[in-house]
Specification:
Shape: globular
Largest sheet: 9 strands, mixed
Radius of gyration: 21 Å
Helix content: 40-55%
CATH architecture of the largest domain: Alpha-Beta Complex
Structural class: alpha/beta
CATH topology of the largest domain: Spore Coat Polysaccharide Biosynthesis Protein SpsA, Chain A
Mean pLDDT: 93
Order of helices and strands: EHEHEHEEHEHEEHHEHHHHHHH
CATH class of the largest domain: Alpha Beta
Length: about 350
Amino acid sequence: MKISVIVPVYNSEKYLNDLFTSLLNQKLEDIEIIAIDDNSSDKSLDILKSYRDKFYPKIRVYKNETNLGVGASRNRGLIYAKGEYVSFVDSDDFIHPLMYYDMYHGRDNHKIDIITTGIVFVKEEASFQDYYRNRRGKGFLLDTRKDENQIIYESPSCANKLFRKEFIGEAKFLVDTMWEDVAFSYAHMFLTDHILVFHNPDYYYRKQSKTGVSAQGLRFNPKLRDIFKVADELKRITLNADRYDYFKKQIKLIQVVSVLQRIREVLDWDIENDCKIRLAQDLYQLCKLKYASINDVDQDGLNMRIDFLKLDKIRSWPEGNMSIEESEKDIDETLKLIKKKKAP
């Protein structure tokens, strides 16, 4: 088996036909599809079973008895995966019919640990046949030891990648945690010596449809502090693999940028301005205490990810004097206050 495709599914009934059509139309036929229904309340499981009944054993379906989240569902899929490589596809997205063929055969039979390709953002109502592009290109080999700064420009998503299963071993996603693939993807990119990079329009991401991370940016998010769990996990994994010191500069930039992206979201929330600014400043204070300030990381990499107006605003904030524990407590208290004010 060449590739195991792991698909966590939660209330995605309106998108599953597009997804499975794109998976079943792959030019690379030697793939298995492992769907994990995360206790959906719509007809998703019925749709999955209908595909399983028609295409078993190519398609296998498992059901979580309770809603565990995408990280735990991916972890369960990894238990069943038999492929040389594993891929993770979100249930409301779809992929190009040449995606896996080009990625797998682009290795030229070399043992490549990670292969990545391009992401195309599409509207919620998009249909898979409307968006396929014929432009194809060859991949290039990224040497992480020689071009370490290039890693930060790769997407943190795990959905546009193939991971060699032997390489990731017993690795798991963080569970009950938002942005969990940031730690998983970046950590493994730092752990390998080579990444095969394609820029083909392969992975079609329905940005507006997301009920999780991407839709969360404009509304109150009580799990905001998860981003620090993610940033800490990135350091933990690379430390354990003795790669942290070599990539310390790049890892700190990713940690800081990840927090700044959450600060940018907070500044767009529809909440009282006093709470908004207090929460954003506490997040940045905690970021400085745990990782680095925006002045102490690579400025080119920073400017590529965060617009200069937000950076200027953050630079104008007064210096805080709280400890890590005090900052964490203040963030939690502010989130509770916002939640209470928003309650009907």
